Write a sequence for this structure.
């Protein structure tokens, strides 16, 4: 069994700052990290799928690094629309997979399941893009190991959520992504962030899914005139379980202290 934890949309702010003057994203991430470390079995690694900080600032990444430091397993980062590639690289120089320039795209090899990171960031924009260069890299990299089960992870999901406020900040290049993924049957899943909710969609012969945030969630309002905002629903992360010969299985894990677990069976007291 190989277990991957996914966290997303942590939106870390500078020391003393709250997101929207209400959400303590740093405290939320610290609680999430502690919850992941308590798992048994512990995940083999953590994927952090973008919007790691809120404004792409160096001091935000410094704080992010200290918050992630207690994790007992490797962490792999990708940028979201709130991130800055240069600041990420400056604060995480030991994460050599980030490269020194250009898009942050990489393969993680020598694992039971192969991991491919896609960069969807357009600096200064809320939406994302997969241009010809990024898609060509994905096609080449998938072609290099056609027999290996693979996860592709990216920030912007390649589908409409039907939450109008979020769909205006969607992903350009999904037609090209669809064509690439359909050529490579080894892709088990596209793991995404951005939407601050757990959502699953059939895409290009596989499944694309999004992860909740360990802090605030996007308000689920499907009306065209619905409120575009956030809601303090239970925070969460996801666990993706790979067992050789079986499909990838995903569990959404709410973060918090919950009563239980309780056994389904119990012994009745003996009559005297």
């Amino acid at each position: 069994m190989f277990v991957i934890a996914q966290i997303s949309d942590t939106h870390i702010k500078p020391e003393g700052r709250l997101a929207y003057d209400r959400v303590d994203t740093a405290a939320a991430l610290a609680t999430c990290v502690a919850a992941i470390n308590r798992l048994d079995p512990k995940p083999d690694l953590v994927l952090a799928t973008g919007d790691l900080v809120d404004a792409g600032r160096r001091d935000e990444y410094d704080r992010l690094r200290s918050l992630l430091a207690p994790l007992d397993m490797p962490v792999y980062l990708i940028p979201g629309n709130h991130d800055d590639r240069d600041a990420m690289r400056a604060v995480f120089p030991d994460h050599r997979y980030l490269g020194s320039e250009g898009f942050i795209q990489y393969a993680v090899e020598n694992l039971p399941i192969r991991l491919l990171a896609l960069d969807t960031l357009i600096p200064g924009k809320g939406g994302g893009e997969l241009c010809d260069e990024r898609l060509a890299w994905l096609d080449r990299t998938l072609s290099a190991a056609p027999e290996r089960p693979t996860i592709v992870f990216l920030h912007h999901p390649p589908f409409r959520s039907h939450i109008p406020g979020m769909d205006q900040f969607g992903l350009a290049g999904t037609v090209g992504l669809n064509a690439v993924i359909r050529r490579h049957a080894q892709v088990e899943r596209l793991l995404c962030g951005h939407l601050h909710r757990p959502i699953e969609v059939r895409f290009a012969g596989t499944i694309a899914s999004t992860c909740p945030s360990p802090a605030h969630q996007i308000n689920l309002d499907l009306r065209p005139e619905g409120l575009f905002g956030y809601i303090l629903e239970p925070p969460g992360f996801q666990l993706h379980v790979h067992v050789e010969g079986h499909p990838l299985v995903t569990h959404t894990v709410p973060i918090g202290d919950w009563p239980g677990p309780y056994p389904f069976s119990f012994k009745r007291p003996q009559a005297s």
